[in-house]
Design goal:
The complex is a heterodimer of chains A (422) and B (300).
Chain A: H1 3-29, E1 30-35, E2 38-43, H2 47-74, H3 80-93, H4 95-143, H5 151-175, H6 182-206, H7 211-231, H8 233-236, H9 257-284, H10 286-296, H11 298-303, H12 308-334, H13 344-357, H14 362-378, H15 386-400, H16 417-420
Antiparallel strand pairs in A: 1-2
Chain B: H1 2-32, H2 39-59, H3 64-91, H4 99-120, E1 126-127, H5 147-169, H6 171-181, H7 183-188, H8 193-219, E2 221-222, H9 226-241, H10 246-266, H11 272-286
Antiparallel strand pairs in B: 1-2
Helix pairs in contact in B: 1-5, 1-8, 1-9, 1-10, 2-3, 2-4, 2-8, 2-9, 3-8, 5-6, 5-8, 6-8, 9-10, 9-11, 10-11
Classes of the chains: A mainly alpha (422), B mainly alpha (300).
Keywords (chain B): Amino-acid transport, Cell inner membrane, Cell membrane, Membrane, Transmembrane, Transmembrane helix, Transport
Subcellular location (chain B): Cell membrane
Organism (chain B): uncultured spirochete
Amino acid sequence: MKVRSILADVRKSLGIAVWAMVLLFPLMVMKVSVTRGVAQVQFRWNLLPFVGIAGFVLSFVWRIALEWKDRRGNNKSEGAFSRVKAWGGQYFARPAVRKSSLVALLCFVIAYPFLFGMYHTNVMITAFIYVILALGLNIVVGLGGLLNLGYAAFFGVGAYTYGLMWKYLGHSFIAAGIDPGWLFWISLPLAGIMASLFGILLSLPVLRLRGDYLAIITLAFGEIFHMVMQNSSDITGGATGISLIPRPWFFGHKLPPPQAATYIYFIAIVLVIITIFIVRRIEDSRVGRALEAMREDEVACEAMGINLVKNKLITFALGSFWAGIAGVIMAAQTTYINPDSFTLWESIIILMAVVIGGTGSIPGVIGGAILLKLLPEYFRALAQYRMLIYGIAMVLVIIFKPDGLIPRKRKQYTFEEKELSK
Amino acid sequence: MEYFLKLFLSGTAKGSIYALIALGYTMVYGIIQLINFAHGEIYMIGGFTALIFGGFFFSKGMPVGFVLLFSVLLSIIYAAAFGYTIEKIAYRPLRGKPRLSALISAIGVSMVLQNFVLLAQTEKFLSFPSYLPEFKWLQPYKEYINSTQLIILGVTAVIMVLLTFLIKFTRMGKAMRATAQDMHMAQLVGVDINQVISVTFILGSALAAIGGVLICSYMGQINYYIGFIAGIKAFVAAVLGGIGSIPGAVLGSFVLGWTESLGTGYISSDYEDAFAFIILIVILLIKPEGILGRTQRQKV
């Protein structure tokens, strides 16, 4: 690299550093506090150099990252890293390796609750709940290309289905001598169906509309759900929610908390596996292909004789179904639900799991969900910066790696090698 | 009737604030078809900057008129600078990519700004001292309308006129309209797209800052979260009037303001925020292109 271009870069970055210091000056340096109607400003000059230095360094990083992105766009399969990746891919494509590593993973997952204790088991359950949610959302966003910003509401529909079942049917179950834990097993499919119904209901007004309207209307639905749950205190318990929700039935035994956690952990695993299985099947089915076509080009898709309305309804119904299921597990795990678990930010975090992991890619989405749920558990010290970091991560991923960390593999026809290298 | 009139006037004031935010939305959407989620955050930052500078100038013992003028000016400048920077960092690299990518990026920006203000300033609600003047002659009518509401109405009207003038009769406005119609074609005839988009963001953000200062003076409080819901409502207003259309955004904002105000007055105040969303769903069912919007024919 030439000296002059480096000098130009430095000058540019200095400019950006100054801009950052000026731009962030009022919010970073001047801290306002209001006492009895009079605003007081306190200066924190010590923060200013940090802003400047950060601006300088980040602008360099940003420039290099943009260059890297351009280069990567031009020639894909070069450099040591991609060669290692390709080798790893081939290695894992071998059936024996693939099978044995899957078995090892399964063994680890099964042994997990016995190795690490209740706290970590519970953390893992929440991660699994997110995996189910992210896989469900992936049907809508990844396959169908429809942005859903109210997904937490469907999650809430599931949780509230179980919660309300318990609230209104629980005592009659107990009076009849039936274990209330049965309610879990009844609610599980019911919640999925309820969430699907809501999904269909919601998608009806927006079937004719473009993607961004859909995002807003799902967002609106999420907010309305939250508000209704919060304000209808005589039916749903309002802001205080529903408590003492029973844990799932286990051959009539009342399990102590650690065992109950293990039990729910296994239910969650089984559901995750079922979800993965079904979602994979959907991807390769007629509906899945139609959805993919719809995502790529709605007009061309319609011209091919695919019924868009029907397919959008199916997408929403299928996507919401898993949210409902996840909601029931969540209610059973925490034994307590209130509207604040189903806010817009919850929807956005689930969306983030899909986007960061890799829209449309099943392993990516699973990885993204586990990552987003486990990292905050183990970096408690950074808890207050969590949403800030998530926001930054979301912007960075969408700019630099729009396919996510584990991109979706598109099915493609491969030609014979010799034909290509002629 | 008196009750109705009162609600109607407060709805009008509310609507004119929504209009200030909705204009920014509709301008940005008109040009790059992006729902700029961060727009509400710009409005919040405008309010915060005004509070910070206002507090600083006031504590230095400056006269109220001076405090008002300079804090509002600085907040407009800062909000515009934020709008410009955000567009450059988060939206420009995504131009030409699928539309949903920019939307997701906008959600990310919105999260970043909210949490940045939360961490750098405070999570508490701060009371917002009003530096706006009180009109003596309005005393007898203060049952119906107070000075702040009147100022809001006046400011919105003036801005509307200026903006219409800018878009209809200036060179920049012409370039903006051309870009909104067809970006590539505008580029071919020599319009500097990047400049037009930057100007759009700067203008929209400046309007949002004015809205932020006005509504914070009206409500008397501010915190880091006020932008989000206001932004969504302003978006609803823009959709209601027909997104991309400037008179539509204003009309939609007034309709939304009246509905909210009458709805909370006659039905229930618990669901104040829900009215906007219900209107949104209804409008999308009946007339998705909005009141003043034109149906866009899809060409293949």
